[in-house]
Amino acid sequence: MKLLHIDSSISGAQSVSRTLTAEIVKCQKALHPGIEVVYRDLAADPALHLSHAHVDAWTGGTVEGAALSCDLETGEEYLAELFVADIIVIGAPMYNFSVPSQLKAWIDRIVVEGQTFEYSESGELQTFLPSAKKVIIASTRGNVYQPGTPTAAHEHHESYLLTVFSFLGLHDVTVVRAEGLAFGPDTRDAAISKARFAIATIAV
Ligand SMILES: Cc1cc2nc3c(=O)[nH]c(=O)nc-3n(C[C@H](O)[C@H](O)[C@H](O)COP(=O)(O)O)c2cc1C
């Protein structure tokens, strides 16, 4: 079995999502002895934003420069890692109501027409990833965005990630959430404890 572990927080050792993904991976390793883990720290080593040069290269144009060439290779590696992973663990802090731009840059490399999806001539969506993958998202945010609250409409974070994975045909998605992290130490500690409890109950 293979597990793809992705972190995207810019907060280093203080990061709650990094703590949670580490714990998820530890639990999954205990559940699946021998599971092979591939780790990507997208904050430390982000992909470039897509540019006209990328589109040019994808459509048969010349690849200009070592940086672009290396970045295109990274994109291919992201795809290869995703195709073979049985479990995908993603650390996803909320930044300005959505995901970190580094995580978005990863998404831009895995949602690729002709590689992970395609539309038929009649407009039907076809997806190419093996669907028997488990996705576990460690969602962290300062505020709370529960349905029915005034802030619910600001939530473009978990809902966005769920849209992405559903679009790719991956429907087995578990969200482990720690929110209200900006509300002071008591709420923060309670939110993290709740997320830790949820992690311990995930059995894949
Ligand atoms: C640049 C930045 C933007 C943020 N934007 C939001 C936001 O829009 N909504 C929110 O609830 N929290 C926001 N936060 C708070 C983070 O979601 C919260 O600190 C969370 O713990 C981040 O996860 P991490 O500890 O893994 O970095 C933001 C934090 C940073 C650093």
Structural class: alpha/beta
What radius of gyration results from the CA coordinates?
18 Å
Task: Indicate the proportion of strand residues.
Answer: 15-25%
Order of strands across the biggest sheet?
2-1-3-6-7
Shape: globular
Mean pLDDT: 97
CATH topology: Rossmann fold
Count of domain modules? 1
Number of helices: 6
| CATH homologous superfamily classification | Flavodoxin domain
Hetero ligands: flavin mononucleotide
The name of the CATH architecture is 3-Layer(aba) Sandwich
What is the C-level CATH assignment? Answer: Alpha Beta
Contiguous uncertain segments of 5+ residues: none
Order of helices and strands: EHEHHEHEEEHEH
Number of DSSP-assigned strands: 7
Helical content, roughly? Answer: 25-40%
Span between N and C termini? 12 Å
GO molecular function: electron transfer activity; FMN binding; oxidoreductase activity, acting on NAD(P)H as acceptor; oxidoreductase activity, acting on NAD(P)H, quinone or similar compound as acceptor
Organism: Paraburkholderia ginsengiterrae
Protein name: FMN dependent NADH:quinone oxidoreductase
Domain Flavodoxin-like fold: 1-197
Protein architecture, described:
This protein has helices at 16-31, 52-58, 66-84, 101-110, 158-167, 185-200, and strands at residues 2-7, 36-41, 87-93, 117-119, 125-127, 134-141, 172-179. With 204 residues, it is an alpha/beta fold. The protein has a single domain (2-200), classed as Flavodoxin domain (Rossmann fold, 3-Layer(aba) Sandwich), CATH 3.40.50. It has a 5-stranded parallel β-sheet with strand order 2-1-3-6-7, with helices on both faces. Strands 4-5 form a two-stranded antiparallel ribbon. Helix 1 runs parallel beside helix 6 (185-200). The model has no long low-confidence stretch (mean pLDDT 97). It binds flavin mononucleotide. Also exhibits azoreductase activity. Catalyzes the reductive cleavage of the azo bond in aromatic azo compounds to the corresponding amines. Quinone reductase that provides resistance to thiol-specific stress caused by electrophilic quinones. Homodimer.
